[in-house]
Design brief:
The protein has one helix at about 1-20, and strands spanning about 45, 50-55, 60-70, 70-75, 90-95, 105-110, 120, 135-140, 145-150. It is α+β, with helices and mostly antiparallel strands. The longest helix has 21 residues, at about 1-20.
Length: about 150
């Protein structure tokens, strides 16, 4: 009897584990995995890569601004790594070394999708990049700069 009960419980538990492993938050939609881009989607305009500096948390790799078929993106390279944290967001900031997080100082590109690896964030078409000096990983909840890359 116990064995039958255990066997009945194993399958639903396995389904729960599979569901948990396959979960992807809805906010992931604003990132285009580089491997899924068609071969003709080569960057037309690319800024020089800027190395991340870990501010309060170790952050490595580099960021660059790219334009592909008229769309602008912030792109992190394969060496990008930062610590996990709550409410991490990606910003384009007006300060080279970000100190002020009032909303007029940055463009919010959304939640950090992964804390490691190559990734790309769409930049809104109406965003003015002339005054942008850095890309930032910021913990909004605790107002902590994890790292930044100065362009």
């Amino acid at each position: 009897m116990k064995r039958q009960l255990i066997n009945k419980l194993k399958f639903p538990g396995l389904m729960l584990v599979i569901a948990m492993l396959s979960y992807q938050p809805a906010t992931q939609a604003n990132v285009t995995p580089l491997s899924s881009l068609p071969p003709q989607a080569l960057a037309q305009n690319v800024s020089a890569g800027a190395a991340f500096v870990g501010e309060d948390h170790p952050t490595t790799g580099s960021a660059q601004l790219v334009e592909i078929e008229g769309e602008r993106y912030l792109e992190f390279d394969a060496a990008f790594r930062t610590d996990a944290g709550p409410d991490l967001v990606v910003l384009l900031h007006k300060e080279a070394v970000p100190t002020s997080y009032s909303s007029e100082n940055y463009i919010n590109l959304g939640q950090v999708q992964r804390v490691a690896g190559k990734q790309r964030y769409a930049i809104p078409a109406e965003a003015n990049l002339e005054s942008i000096q850095s890309a930032v990983i910021w913990c909004r909840q605790f107002d902590v700069t994890f790292g930044y890359a100065t362009f």
